[in-house]
Amino acid sequence: MKEEQFIIFCHCVRPTTGTEMTIPLPPEVTPETVVDYIGNEFDWMFIPMGVQVVPVDDLRHGPEYPNYDEPS
């Protein structure tokens, strides 16, 4: 039985400009730490609006996640 692998993406917004971005989260980021991670990573200019769990296999089938670079 094959174990599935997933990537967690976080959709963020910069309130002052309305700029949106979706980034993959590192595996060590948990639901309890995502707000602090995004705040620290982007100098508190972006706030997380939601997350999406995506199977790694789905990333190979389309350009939906342009900020994702598959590890080699």
* Low confidence ranges: none
Strand content: 25-35%
**How much helicity do the residues have?**
10-25%
Alpha-carbon distance between the termini? 24 Å
Shape: globular
Main sheet properties: 3 strands, antiparallel
Rg calculated over all Cα atoms:
13 Å
Give the overall pLDDT as a whole number.
84
Number of strands: 3
What is the number of helical segments per DSSP (H or I, 4+ residues)? 2
Structural class: alpha+beta
Sheet with most strands: strand arrangement: 2-1-3
Order of H and E elements:
EEHEH
Number of domains: 1
Core attributes:
72 residues, alpha+beta, three-stranded antiparallel β-sheet, 2 helices, 3 strands
Written overview of the protein:
This protein has 72 residues and is α+β, with helices and mostly antiparallel strands. The chain has one domain. Helix content is 17%, strand content 33%. The protein has a three-stranded antiparallel beta sheet with strand order 2-1-3. It starts with 5 loop residues before the first strand and ends in a 13-residue tail after the last helix.
Summarize this entry quickly:
The protein has 72 residues and is an alpha+beta fold. The chain has helices at residues 34-41, 56-59, and strands at residues 6-14, 19-24, 47-55.
Question: What does the secondary structure layout of this molecule look like, with pairings?
Answer:
Blueprint: E1 6-14, E2 19-24, H1 34-41, E3 47-55, H2 56-59
